[in-house]
Design brief:
Blueprint lengths: L3 H13 L2 H8 L3 H15 L4 E4 L2 E4 L1 H28 L4 E7 L1 H18 L3 E7 L7 H4 L5 E7 L9 E16 L9 E3 L7 E4 L5 H12 L5 E5 L3 H9 L5 E4 L10 E7 L4 E9 L6 H15 L2
Parallel strand pairs: 3-4, 3-5, 7-11, 8-9
Antiparallel strand pairs: 1-2, 5-12, 6-10, 6-11, 6-12
Helix pairs in contact: 1-2, 1-3, 1-4, 2-3, 5-9
Length: 299
């Protein structure tokens, strides 16, 4: 097998026209250069240089290997440049997983900022199940996932580092003619006897609601379940019950409902960015996390 380093020594000799000049360029002694070329000739099984006056010139085999050495040197230079770009965050790929209500409020502005600051980084953006967002992060198929849960939730987070982004409070959504509609805020316990419209599937978001209701001394009686926040508002507007919807989920409000702050206690879900604990440092990921945190502070 041909030694790549010795091929670069041959390239220096051919390029400079003499062993002495090549030695000066490489910082070797002429004897060391001659030894390297001799060892390469043994590997090649043929002469690579021939003497001409006080210098040397390549044989046909020497010219052939010098051409390949040039190509290898070019590839190494390209690799060094590509690596420097990756380490500096100028290039690379970032896989992001997020849930629907975080898309517009958090992910969109963070993506816009990352593209402005690091335009060469490719983004892989996909919706994920908020009830089970971590497998892709744990398995290395995603770099970051947005995780929703009640404050202090830690189950299933082994091997994952959480970066807190914000606490997203739930708001009471009531029909316009509701007895509490004129109030600026409502106590959660005041909704204990109401029919409820479910706004969440089983998982950490529903757990945040139920935990707050339990703290207020009741368990909500669900008259109807809905698949999303918009549908839940429609059921509330039709007078089928009341519901709780997180602030991030209230991007579009039904004209026939009113939204009120909830107190004593205030149901809250906490949103984190989850990254793998063993993931190597990545400038683009750090920049994206900063952008997420900044987007979370904008109210």
């Amino acid at each position: 097998m041909l030694d790549v380093r010795r091929m670069q020594v041959l390239r220096a000799v051919v390029g400079s026209g003499s062993v002495t000049a090549a030695a000066a360029r490489l910082g070797y002694t002429p004897s060391a250069v001659s030894q390297q070329v001799g060892a390469l000739e043994k590997e090649a099984g043929t002469a690579l240089l021939e003497r001409v006056g006080r210098g040397v010139r390549p044989t046909a085999a020497g010219l052939l290997l010098t051409g390949y050495a040039d190509a290898i040197a070019g590839q190494v230079a390209e690799a060094e440049t590509a690596l420097a770009d990756l380490v500096a965050g100028r290039t690379g790929r970032l896989a992001v997983r997020y849930f629907a209500t975080a898309g517009a409020a958090l992910v969109a502005p963070a993506v816009a900022r990352l593209r402005a600051e690091h335009p060469g980084v490719q983004l892989d953006l996909k919706l994920t199940d908020p009830a089970d967002p971590l497998p892709e992060v744990k398995e290395g198929r995603a770099d970051v996932a947005l995780v929703v849960g009640a404050a202090g939730a830690s189950a299933g987070m082994e091997g994952v580092r959480l970066v807190k982004l914000l606490e997203d409070p739930y708001l009471a959504v009531l029909p316009k003619g509701h007895r509490l509609a004129a109030r600026r805020s409502v106590e959660l316990g005041e909704l204990a006897g109401e029919s409820w419209v479910g706004s969440e599937w089983p998982g950490p978001c529903l757990d945040a609601q139920l935990g707050a209701c339990e703290a207020a001394g009741f368990r909500p009686r669900f008259a109807v379940q809905s698949e999303d926040y918009v549908t839940a508002q429609g059921f509330v507007a039709a007078g089928l019950g009341v519901t709780l919807i997180p602030r991030l989920g209230l991007g579009s409000r039904h004209p026939d409902v009113v939204v009120r702050v909830v107190r004593d206690p205030e149901p809250v879900r906490t949103i984190h960015a989850a990254v793998r604990e063993t993931a190597p440092p990545q400038l683009a990921l750090r920049a994206f996390l900063r952008a997420l945190r900044d987007a979370a502070t904008v109210d």
